[in-house]
Amino acid sequence: MIETLEWTDAGVRFIDQTKLPTEETYVVCTTHGQVADVIRTMVVRGAPAIGVSAAMGIALGVKNSVAASESELRREFDEIARIIGETRPTAVNLFWAIQRMKAKLDSLRGKSIVEIKSALIEESKRMHAEDIAANQAMGRHGATLMPSSGGVLTHCNAGALATAGYGTALGVIRAAVEAGKKIHVYADETRPFLQGSRLTAWELMKDGISTTVISDNMAGAMMRRGKIQAIVVGADRIAANGDVANKIGTYSVAVLAKEHGIPFYVAAPISTVDLATPDGSKIPIEQRNAKEVTHIGGRQMVPDGVSVENPAFDVTPAKYVEAIITERGIARAPYGESLLALANEEVAAVR
Ligand code: MRU
């Protein structure tokens, strides 16, 4: 399995996703500031991977601390969490991970500094292992929804590279293929950062899963030509009502799917469900550097001085979503009820 990120004795090691698919190189971070930088610059990206990176970044920062007392260490923890929390605003897994590390710290009151450091490192490693297990469970649930044969479209990269391993949307596809389904993947290129053509195609090829890359503007024509039997994407944040924030372009795919009667599925762990956000209009959308749009591979494609927009995500209203696949089961509309039930682990009630 692809090692997206891992805790090592030398530091937190990341595959450098900005260099893929042509170079497979790794970056080792030894400070929490470096981890914040790799999240911001998208050396590591994808909501669940960002969450686990945040946890390991915090663990690294605490490990490096020379605080002499528990209260000093707690103050340093808050500063480390603040720095990591300012990297990317949309993926709620980042904030979920920070809260979980904070809760762990709170459970360690009165312990020695050595014990606190080691417990926080272990917690971040546990989150890494749990993420892989969640993706495999999501795969088992979601595989049942995939066609026994045919084309499955995905947008962006919601694969091993976007998680601790196996993937959410690509985990569903992997599990379906492992179960013997004859699936051909159509990977949207995913302008402007090209996660589909650079990353999804790379990891599916490594697994021997047949894949065709299409430019984003081909998706509708492919659906009309009968090439696509299902769509599965990941999510960066799912509001309490089932509205889904995901990579820019996802909304267009969902609307096209509705027009063509193709089921549009979202696969995401429960940590991506944000019950505190009532609907998609309240999800903060990250605006990234215009250069990601104006330049391709370092070459300028847009005239100097022209106005450019670069929202990294869009929101797909819940009405376009056929089902949300989580590690605890499959949620269907009305999502206000089904997501709440899953979040409360009442799995049997929604399946
Ligand atoms: O900007 P990115 O590459 O971090 O955006 C990633 C996505 O939008 C993914 O689809 C989402 O995080 C789900 S990853 C399992």
Describe the protein.
- α1 (about 30-40) runs parallel beside α3, α2 packs antiparallel against α5 and α3 runs antiparallel to α4.
- With about 350 residues, this protein is of the alpha/beta class.
- The protein is globular.
- Helix content is about 40%, strand content about 20%.
- It folds into two domains: about 5-135, Up-down Bundle (Four Helix Bundle (Hemerythrin (Met), subunit A)), CATH 1.20.120.420; about 145-350, Rossmann fold (3-Layer(aba) Sandwich), CATH 3.40.50.
- The strands form four sheets. It has a seven-stranded mixed sheet. It has a four-stranded mixed sheet with strand order 11-8-9-14, covered by helices on one side. Strands 1-2-3 form a three-stranded antiparallel sheet, covered by helices on one side.
- 5-S-methyl-1-O-phosphono-5-thio-D-ribulose binds near residues 48 and 163.
Text of the CATH class of the largest domain: Alpha Beta
Please list the strands of the largest sheet in the order they lie side by side: 6-5-4-7-10-15-16
Main β sheet profile? 7 strands, mixed
> Roughly how many Å is the radius of gyration?
20 Å
